[in-house]
Amino acid sequence: MSGVASLGLRSSGSYGSLQQSNGQSPSPSPPLGARKAGKMSLGGAGAGGRGGERLLFARICKLTSRRRRMLLLLLVAAAVVFCFLFSSLVSKDEDAPPGIETMLGFSDQVRSFVNPVWTSSGRPIIQRDSLSGNGLNTASQTEKQSDSSHEKLWGVSWSFPPSVVLEHHPCENFSFSPPPIDRKRTGPRPCPVCYVPVEQALALMPGAPSASPVLRSLNYLSDDNLISKESNSGSLFGGYPSLEERDKSYDIKDSMMVHCGFVRGKIPGVNTGFDIDRADLSEMWQCQGIVVASAIFGNYDIMQQPENISIFSKDTVCFFMFLDEETEAAIKNTTTIDNTKRIGLWRVVVVRNLPYSDARRNGKVPKLLLHRLFPNVRYSIWIDGKLKLVRDPYQLLERFLWRKNVSFAISRHYRRFDVFEEAEANKVGGKYDNASIDYQIEFYKREGLTHYSSAKLPITSDVPEGCVIIREHIPITNLFTCLWFNEVDRFTSRDQLSFSTVRDKIRTRVNWTADMFLDCERRDFVVQAYHRELWEQILRSPPPPLSPSVRQQPRKMLPDNTAKEPGKASASKRLPAKRTRDKKSGSKRAHRTKVTTGGKEFIQL
Description:
With about 600 residues, the protein is α/β, with parallel strands linked by helices. It has a domain at about 270-535: Alpha-Beta Complex (Spore Coat Polysaccharide Biosynthesis Protein SpsA, Chain A). The chain has 27 helices and 14 strands. Strands 5-6-4-3-7-10-9-11 form an eight-stranded mixed sheet, sandwiched between helices. A two-stranded parallel ribbon has the order 1-2. Strands 8-12 form a two-stranded antiparallel ribbon. Helix 12 (about 310-315) links the parallel strand 3 (about 290-295) and strand 4. Helix 3 runs antiparallel to helix 4 (about 50-65), helix 14 (about 360-370) runs antiparallel to helix 19 (about 475-490) and helix 17 packs antiparallel against helix 18. The model is unreliable at about 1-50, about 90-115, about 120-135, about 135-165 and about 550-605 (pLDDT under 50).
């Protein structure tokens, strides 16, 4: 009963104002208030400063209404929560090292979302369920893992601090300008390109894969017993597709099965030609998110190390370099490959049992079939072995894919736009035997290939500069590169000649095309080096001797020497270059310097 009485007293004291408003007698309120005040004072005497706080709280409760007290409590609770969150953020920033990772609050957990099996050391985590009886995952298992990682990445990309949220794109006011004038460099050169910082590029990454028009499921043919039924039907590695099968591969449906290399086996790289060690394959299959890939075959190029790569990209992006045994042996003479099979950022993969005798044609396998070698990767950036990457991969993907909402990007040739002109240039340069080039072009002409004209707009070119490919791995882009590879396998290895034919055949059937950006933009994020043979030739050969006229040219730039040596000065005035420059001065000056001597006119130079 005492508990009930005390509850009644608290109720009467707390809601006395409400009782008065209901018409009850106000006389009991003052004694209750006085008794409560005395109780508080006793508590203050026993507890020191706490009594004053309780008295203040009681007076506030007495003077304010119930609604105001509730609002006050909500404000106090909100302030406490805000202070707690703010203190936790400040403590994280104080503990984190400076740099880009401080702004984003990146951690190993965030890195695992972007690439779940890639650690900060750059080594993948070998998971028990990643290996099956044949040594590798099935494609369905890896696709499910990839989809789940993409969903995690979407949640992470929007959980960054508010500073990463962009109301306006930083490059929306950027206007294109041609390459700056350089008298010493008259050939192709880079032009300004607007990139966003890595943290903003990551925040702008799409949360879901791009839509693949019509095609939803793409499968690949495999056959152990292959027989060539036609001449010029490709190679054993490509599966000898017939012309009828070639035509059917352009009949795009919801589900398709096409030739796409590696036909002699079910797992690319395992007894299919272009064979790769199982340990390397396992690491490649565990790469998820983004891969940057390159290749050097026949010791044709010098390995270039990427530059200006952020720490976050080093931890989450896979960098793979494919080599043949000849190139590996040459590299080991000058470079040490550690236990992790790494040279700088590149994870080296040695390929054996190459399908072609031509090193350049072997290079088309990883270039066009990366989706088969890396089935769990969402985006890939291919660069030729002679190129050095000097921009961060996330910046490239944002600039050339995400900003334009496209799934395939390649640069166009800096000079040629027409396939017929490209074919003639290949013949003049000795890139391939003329008969094979002519056969390929005549075949395409019978299929309807025409010269490039403005009627093809918005397509800006039929000839790519194929040393860089930036793409998203979705069924339609995978189909495009498969069919492009089949053309390279059937005809010449000059992929510039077959690009437009495959693109236009797909474009007439579905709403998709390959985006082509300017070559000067490409030259902004890759630096081109000489091929190994040409570079060694330059180093061996001495500089050519200067001609006499070239040796005398610097003297006209030194007026002091010409004044001290009149004889040499007069000789330098007789140089053709000097006369040419004087002729530009105009006819009036020539008339003023005429001198008549003995009835003859002389012009004093």
